TrEMBL record:
Family: Belongs to the MsrA Met sulfoxide reductase family.
The Peptide methionine sulphoxide reductase MsrA domain, residue ranges: 7-157
Gene field: msrA
EC number: 1.8.4.11
Recorded superkingdom: Bacteria
Function of the protein: Has an important function as a repair enzyme for proteins that have been inactivated by oxidation. Catalyzes the reversible oxidation-reduction of methionine sulfoxide in proteins to methionine.
GO MF terms held by the record: L-methionine:thioredoxin-disulfide S-oxidoreductase activity; peptide-methionine (S)-S-oxide reductase activity
Protein name (record): Peptide methionine sulfoxide reductase MsrA
Keyword Protein biosynthesis in record: no
InterPro entries per UniProt: Met_Sox_Rdtase_MsrA_dom (IPR002569), Met_Sox_Rdtase_MsrA_sf (IPR036509)
Active-site positions on this chain: C13
Length: 180
């Protein structure tokens, strides 16, 4: 049986955060949900009200023998604007903020190193503001949010483009799927 580990990343709208991870060998499952807040079992409407403290996030179950946490971090950074503390692209507000949630000291250290390397790279002209936080309970989002890019591919692609995310990632990363 494969060894399994968990990573949780908040990158704005969770619809746009599933597909980039879902296609990598070693990623076993990507689930949309809510984390970081204080209300148990929040609904989408509650999270959107910005009264629960939660962010939209993805929980990634992966086989560390096939894909490393460092590789997942590299994929994560390529999906977001790490300089925007007010949300992501079209989606504004605290529930759309970015964050890395760690489970172990090793994950925390790798996330810090990755963030520092990105900051030192000069790729962005503003500070990297994505926080690195201890993991809190993760609550699955409603079923219609799960694997949205597969369930509603045309709407997903329109949203991904119209939100500004696709243009931003192409401009800053060249649209490449490769992990450096």
């Amino acid at each position: 049986m494969n060894r399994q580990e968990i990573a949780i990343f908040a990158g704005g709208c969770f619809w746009c955060m599933v597909k980039p991870f879902d296609t990598w060998p070693g990623v076993l499952r990507v689930e949309s949900g809510y984390t970081g807040g204080d209300v148990p079992n929040p609904t989408y409407e509650q999270v959107c009200s910005e009264m629960t403290g939660h962010v939209e996030a993805v929980r990634i179950t992966y086989d560390p023998e096939k894909i490393s946490y460092q590789e997942l971090l590299n994929i994560f950074w390529r999906q977001i604007d790490p300089t925007d503390a007010g949300g992501q692209f079209y989606d504004r507000g605290s529930s759309y903020q970015t964050a890395i949630f760690y489970f172990t000291e090793e994950q925390r250290q790798e996330a810090i190193q990755s963030k520092n390397e990105l900051a030192a790279s000069g790729r962005f002209d503003k500070p990297i503001v994505t926080p690195i936080l201890p993991a809190k309970p993760f609550y699955l989002a409603e079923d219609y949010h799960q694997n949205y890019y597969q369930k509603q591919p045309l709407h997903y692609e329109r949203y991904h483009r119209a939100s500004g995310r696709a243009d931003f990632t192409e401009r800053h990363w060249g649209g490449s799927k490769s992990v450096e």
